[in-house]
């Protein structure tokens, strides 16, 4: 089964906590702090692997987690860093952040990789908090948070030439004749529901050709399997537009030609900039000199496209179509690549996390609540049996302006304030 889309949850490793420890040696009755730092949490890394062909594995496993960093230890020993988690995907996979809908990375070539979620930093041990006033700090820094996000994996076929056209016009037959591929072929719509690839050998060159499953009207809006079909066309360099010129199903070839191009343009206007070769298939069923075929040929040529009469089942005109595709690929190879602007995920902004230092207040039936990301980390670092550590937490909340905001909500002395999962009574002087 060809699976070309999956949604998974990734989670980096949490940073290890710094250690609270003191030297305990003979003849050193008042040994100083010696708590080591915690290790960094593992990153989540995506890497393109040429041995993979589909996203099938992600149908059965949906959550992926890197290893947490180890906590610091006594004698200033650092905790071990967590191992990175490398998730391998097929070349041609686009990784998208589900929350923003922005592309994180397009892994085109085998070996391409990137860090999708950084592990949390290791917390500092209590040895870092000794100063002239605080000789025996009884607290340490908590490890940095793990980063969790939902990502969408989309695989787009990497092919040089893409076959487009309505269902049942002969694309699969052309692929089978031109290559060693063996697509399922029958006389009904949507025989092809998965893309098929084949390698075309012509003269002294070769290229990869993909049979993109049949497009229908409304495909750009997701009709049928529209999005699933159309996205595979984006990577192709040249399009072969197969049209049934015999009108064997009562269709008008001119209308079919226009409708397919309209769907391509509506989905992505860039697709209309690709070289397009028109293969007038089933030519053996019409009079090549007759008015109907000539009407189609003249109409298409007026729009600037070359028309090649062809009958794929009996291998008539196939070589000419493939030769033209090879010539177009050769021409494109000599041109500088066009850069298309795509708004991508901002990793720098994500790392900075502008909400990190924000403190939020609210009121519920049990009292007043204070939350925040940096507050959570300081809370995790607090030793609630140490007055100095408690005072540091309280002063942080005070400087953040949280108490002033709570007073606007009606906070008075003696009221209960909840910070994460710790409750205390509020007084102006701590």
Automatic annotation (TrEMBL):
An essential GTPase which binds GTP, GDP and possibly (p)ppGpp with moderate affinity, with high nucleotide exchange rates and a fairly low GTP hydrolysis rate. Plays a role in control of the cell cycle, stress response, ribosome biogenesis and in those bacteria that undergo differentiation, in morphogenesis control. PANTHER family: DEVELOPMENTALLY REGULATED GTP-BINDING PROTEIN-RELATED, MITOCHONDRIAL RIBOSOME-ASSOCIATED GTPASE 2. One of its GO terms (molecular function) is GTPase activity. GTP binds at residues 165-172, 190-194, 281-284, 311-313. Monomer. Residues 32-42 have a biased composition (Gly residues). This is GTPase Obg. Its main location: cytoplasm. Residues 1-158 form the Obg domain. It is found in: Cytoplasm. It is an enzyme of class 3 (hydrolase). Keywords: Cytoplasm, GTP-binding, Hydrolase, Magnesium, Metal-binding, Nucleotide-binding. One of its GO terms (cellular component) is cytoplasm. Residues 348-428 form the OCT domain.
